[in-house]
Amino acid sequence: MKSPRKVLIGTVACVIATAGVGWGVSTRLRSPADEAALRTPPKASLITAPVERTKLVSTVVVSGTLEYGSPLPVTLAGVVGGSDTTQRATRAPRPGKVVEGGVLMEVNGRPVFAMSGKVPMHRTIGPGAKGADVKQLQRALRGLGHGARVTGVFDRATVAAVTKFYARKGYEAQQPTLESRQQLDSLRKAVQTAQETLATEQKALDQGGDVRPLKLKLGNTRADLKAAQRAYDEAKERRYTTEDDAKIEAADVAVRTAEEKVLQAENDLAAAVRENNTPDTSYPTTTTSPSATPAPAPSPKASVDTTLLELRVSNARADLETARRAYGRIEEEARLAREKRLTELSKTVRDAKEAVATAEQALRQARALSPVKLKVANARKDLAAARSLMAEYQRTFGTTIPPGELVFLPKLPARLHKAGVKAGENVDKAVATVTSSSFVVTGSVESTETDLLKEGLDAVIETSSGKTYPATLTAFGEKAALSTDEAKPAEGEEGMSSEPVLISPVSEKGLKGLAGTAVTAKVTVGATDTEVLVVPVAAVITSADGKARVRVEISPDRTKDVEVRTGLTADGKVEVTGDLKEGDRVVVSGA
Description:
Layout: H1 4-28, H2 32-39, E1 47-50, E2 52-54, E3 57-68, E4 72-74, E5 89-91, E6 96-98, E7 102-107, E8 110-116, H3 132-143, H4 156-168, H5 178-206, H6 212-237, H7 242-276, H8 307-368, H9 373-395, E9 406-409, E10 414-419, E11 432-435, E12 439-446, E13 458-462, E14 468-476, H10 478-483, E15 498-505, E16 518-527, E17 532-536, E18 541-542, E19 548-555, E20 558-570, E21 573-578, E22 585-589
Parallel strand pairs: 8-9
Antiparallel strand pairs: 1-22, 2-17, 3-12, 3-16, 4-11, 5-7, 6-10, 7-8, 10-11, 12-15, 13-14, 13-16, 14-15, 17-21, 18-19, 19-20, 20-21
Helix pairs in contact: 5-9, 6-8, 7-8
């Protein structure tokens, strides 16, 4: 007999199985009404989006390439070396850094140097050349340690600096070519020939019968003038003649002799006077006692007669005065004689000058009538012209810098981006393209977006790996085209025109390995200062009255129109102000 528990479990299991079978059958069987209901489209509902509060940033997206900026094609201004022979590259430009005074390439074995300067090389710079190009060359040489004064003139000091610069680089500065030396030699011979012709014609003129006596007379008068002038100069340099010097010397001796006699006489008289005034001390004085016998009194001293001596002094003084007057008279006579002699010699010089002038005039008049004079005049003109040509040529003769041996670049150091010629090729086109050493992003935007741009706007450069770098909008439109390879606005999709854009990174750190890669740049053209209410652009509709509105959902099936004022638009959203709050839902589209 089965237990009640087992009976209960079996009954429940049967009920469950029966229910399962019934459910399975019911899922497979539907009535026609159910099938129709399943195939009816759902009731149309509104598509809404929430009103958000956020800071809005508007950007212009630029797809471009990261590369070195300011590409500049480099062409040679003329020949390299001093010859116009075929210019062939013997060492091609090599990509890399271009520095001040560096060798860019070689043509026919001669160097092409790079130097900084805004004035392009356009001529051969040689001795005597002047200009702004010479001045900037001198500045570059000074910067390289070769002391050349910045005068703007290619002078000897600059030539020495150029020679030293070339030598330090392992080259020789360009010297005059064989053709130049031959040309200078031809000019020298032309001068010599002109001199010989003039000498021949002058000799023929001088040997003419009508001028020979006059020429001889002119020579004599010139010799007379020379002699007269020499005599006058000698007389002017000497104070007295030999005879006058002898007389004055004798008078001077007489004065000195008289002075000696006066001195002797005065000394004798003075001695006599002293003698007379001196007491006689030949008898000594002694003291005796009263009782002694007194000594006999001394005899008086005899005085010297000075009359004769005084007479001698007077006569000596008179002789001295006479000698002095004689000396003055002789000296005055010599002075007057000198003045008279100079006057006569001066007149002789004037007469000689007049004679020379008369002879020269006579000779000129005679030569003016000579038929040979025209030949002499023409020979003189030919000689002057030949000398002028040679002097002009010599001013530019010497060490030069051919136009192709120097390339002035606006800014150095620079970067040689690519070579335009290979070794062995003729140099008849741009030899290289140089760029700055700074990176830029070159790209383009639709012309309609350029109204939003202005130089200096902040930007962000984003690489394919997602890394970003801060940047700045440097240029756009025509200005950007001048700084890139763009020659004119490009055509975008569907014929829409586009404008070139130039964006410069704030820092080049981490960019060196990305040169030539495609990047995306976002230029910030507008941003709100704080967080604002925004809605999708598709939520804003313009009514017939021209006012902007949005439809705000107030219940699942009901909306109301709210008038708004729009502001900045960015990333498919627009700033709005009005009777809205964050979290409201606005209708984007409906069915």
